[in-house]
Amino acid sequence: MRRKSVFWKILTIAVIVAVGLSVGVFVYASNPDDSVYDAEPITAVDPAIQKSMEEAALYEETPRLNVSDDQYVAEGDKSEYLNNNPQPIFQAVPEADQYFDINTRIDEEYLASVGAAVKLKEVMSYEAFLENFNEEALTAIAPDCMVYVLQVHYPNGYETRRGLYLDAVVTGLYDAATGYYHGFSLTGQCENINAPGE
Amino acid sequence: MQRIKNSLLKGVTIAMVVAIAVMSVSSIATASYYPSNGRAYGIARNSGTGLDGNFFRLQIKAMDSKWSSSSSANARFILHTTWLAFAGTAWIECGTMHGAIQEPGASAPSFWNGSYTAQGSSSTYNEYKISGPSAAVNIYHTYQISRTAGPDSAGQYSWGVYVDYDLRRTFKNTDHYGRLPDVGLESNESTATSAQWNEHSLQRIVNWSWNNWARSNNSLVYTNGASVSYVNSTTGSSIYTSK
């Protein structure tokens, strides 16, 4: 009788341990992003988010009436609504003889660790940038607005939202007066694009 | 003693069988829940080809990529957007996002919450903020990708990205027409969230006429906890998306 009791005790403990282990494996496998568990709890607004929101607010437009009312948009020709020459937001600031320090946006140690190197960091007018780099325009920037151009070569590849581009030359664009970051253009070779339908 | 040993052996065997059974069920559920790239999509796709462009309108609601500047969370993003595909792997996208935007000289992405545009192919990729349009909840915006000019002397066409009918950025490619437009939600983060958004007035531009997407020309794709559904039972030009 005692041996039977020992057997059932052992069996019960074994089943509890097995189910516990299995549930643990299930929960872990259901969250392939390990960072969920690594991340520190966020108790306040991240300073980088706060800074970005403050910058965005400086340039915020007044919502246009024809898109702010609660109406579905009728079918038909909308060509008459289209404005191909909106007023630029980032204007020339002639008195700006002090530009922001582009070096604050460059992590040389990191770049060296991934085999990347800065090819160019230079202030120029937006018009000159478009011409020299054969770029298409952001209409938010006036042609005579001064911009900081930062170009970095990543021979081992640059990870983007859409995949890893090998032998990438990445050209970043900043407002020279304020350091506001506009975005980047890249040339390279991507073997595995992460986009819907691809 | 022998009987105790036998009891132990039986216990261990049963425990292993139970564990293997439960783990098998777990792995099946995981495999079916996460596709190969692990991204969450809740999108409507139109089968249109020969398009002069694509258009939609949305009302901004809450979304959170769970981005932070810590190394484990600074690549996260969530977005509501439209993609217009071109020949090969080329595409243009524009919409509104919350989360990571790459900076070429930095060791980590920075943060952006607002409208954006991107254009890519197997050999190029551009990603830019669209400064100006508000990211405040309940604001409406229209987004449009359409051909603006071409071909030039090099055989290239210019494609414009419009937000609220204002041209924001142009891109060049050799395609006269776009195809297979998508509208909806994408995220690379399992803990990211989005309230229910209504992407509506989904219209494709053919011969410079903006026409609602027909349900018969659409398909819905939803993966990894994102959802998409039609707003009503008769049209394919208005969807709900959430995560």
Task: Give a nutshell description of this structure.
The complex is a heterodimer of chains A (198) and B (243). By secondary structure, chain A is α+β, with helices and mostly antiparallel strands.
What is the tally of beta strands of chain A? 5
How would the global form of chain A be characterised? extended
List the quaternary state of the chains: heterodimer
Give the averaged pLDDT of chain A, no decimals.
84
Rough outline of chain B: globular
Order of helices and strands of chain A: HHHHHEHEEEE
Q: How is the CATH topology of the largest domain in chain B named?
A: Jelly Rolls
Which CATH class of the largest domain in chain B is shown?
A: Mainly Beta
Average residue-wise pLDDT of chain B: 89
Helix/strand layout:
The complex is a heterodimer of chains A (198) and B (243).
Chain A: H1 2-29, H2 35-38, H3 47-58, H4 65-68, H5 108-113, E1 117-125, H6 126-132, E2 146-154, E3 158-160, E4 163-175, E5 181-190
Chain B: H1 2-33, E1 40-46, E2 53-59, E3 63-64, E4 77-85, E5 91-101, E6 110-120, E7 124-130, E8 140-149, E9 157-163, E10 166-173, E11 179-187, E12 193-194, E13 197-206, E14 209-212, E15 218-223, E16 227-230, E17 238-242
Antiparallel strand pairs in B: 1-11, 1-15, 2-8, 2-13, 3-12, 4-5, 4-11, 5-6, 6-7, 8-9, 9-10, 13-14, 13-17, 16-17
Protein model, in words:
The complex is a heterodimer of chains A (198) and B (243). With 198 residues, chain A is an alpha+beta fold. Chain A folds into two domains: 2-38; 91-198, no CATH class. Helix content of chain A is 31%, strand content 22%. Chain A is built from six helices and five strands, in the order H-H-H-H-H-E-H-E-E-E-E. Chain A has helices at 2-29, 35-38, 47-58, 65-68, 108-113, 126-132; strands at residues 117-125, 146-154, 158-160, 163-175, 181-190. In chain A, strands 1, 2, 3, 4 and 5 form a five-stranded antiparallel sheet that branches. The longest helix of chain A has 28 residues, at 2-29. Chain A starts with a helix and ends in an 8-residue tail after the last strand. Chain B has 243 residues and is mainly beta. Chain B has two domains: 1-33; 39-242, Sandwich (Jelly Rolls). Chain B contains one helix and 17 strands. Chain B has one helix at 2-33; strands spanning 40-46, 53-59, 63-64, 77-85, 91-101, 110-120, 124-130, 140-149, 157-163, 166-173, 179-187, 193-194, 197-206, 209-212, 218-223, 227-230, 238-242. In chain B, strands 2, 8, 9, 10, 13, 14, 16 and 17 form an eight-stranded antiparallel sheet that branches. In chain B, strand 6 and strand 7 (124-130) form a beta hairpin. The interface between A and B is large, with 102 and 107 residues.
